[in-house]
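B., you asked whether I could sanity-check this one before it goes into the benchmark set. Here's the sequence:
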Amino acid sequence: MEFTKLVSIIADVLNVDTAEITVDTTFVDDLGADSLDIFQIIMGIEEEFDIEISNEDAEQIVSVGDAVEQIKKAIG
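And here's what the prediction gave me:
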């Protein structure tokens, strides 16, 4: 469930096809995201899941899988 919502957020922010996004997809190398894009994705995650991701945790998010793990960690 987290993955599906996350893919929707990423596709919306980066204007990419959801079929391009897998757990192993990296934001910068695979999707061409810059720091502003990543910030917008993290804001979208926080809003969608009603969680807060610290700056330290956000810096650790490189791939879609990393983001899923942060969401699961924050939800508990």
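One thing to flag: The chain has a mean pLDDT of 96. Otherwise nothing jumped out at me.
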